[in-house]
Amino acid sequence: MKGLTVLSRKQGRLSAALAGFVLMQALAAVFYVGDGLWDLTHEPASIRVLTEFVVGLALFLGVGFGAATLRHTLETMAAQQRALAAASGALVDVVQAQFDRWGLTAAERDVAMLALKGLDVAEIAQLRGAAQGTVRAQLTRIYSKSGLSGRAQLAAHFVEDLLGGGIDTQRPAPVDHIAAARTSA
What we know:
This protein is mostly helical. It folds into 2 domains: 2-88; 103-163, Orthogonal Bundle (Arc Repressor Mutant, subunit A). The protein is 82% helix and 0% strand. The protein has helices at 2-42, 47-102, 106-116, 121-128, 132-146, 151-163, 177-184. Helix 3 packs across helix 5 and helix 4 (121-128) crosses helix 5. The protein is rod-shaped and about 90 Å long.
């Protein structure tokens, strides 16, 4: 979750900087269009004055389009950040539900979670204030209860959940995309 907070702060600074640039462009467009209008009212219509006025209008429309696009992009980024936060929380729920099904004790849950986070036996033992032998024994019980053979399978079990299912060991026949395109045409 710390990474999401840092990302949120960076996005906030980026949003503020982009909003500042859009504001500066809008002020420049207003100045340019105002200057073009002043020129049109005080000078005869010349190619230069008409060109300045048209370019000013194009700049003004570009600022509006850019602001709308920026707003849409920022809304999309915010939605993706919310989805990522929800998915992160959902993964913890999935992991805890699986630990329930395996019947892990509170200590085994802690050890399993730390193992999933990539900590080795010595680091887990230090964090938990336990002996390395105790952590090894707990890992052995976790693997036994789960039916998995080790840390790699433990991690892979949850990655499989993230990917939406297991690997199909039956390989499908290769698809001839050219033949498929001809038959559908």
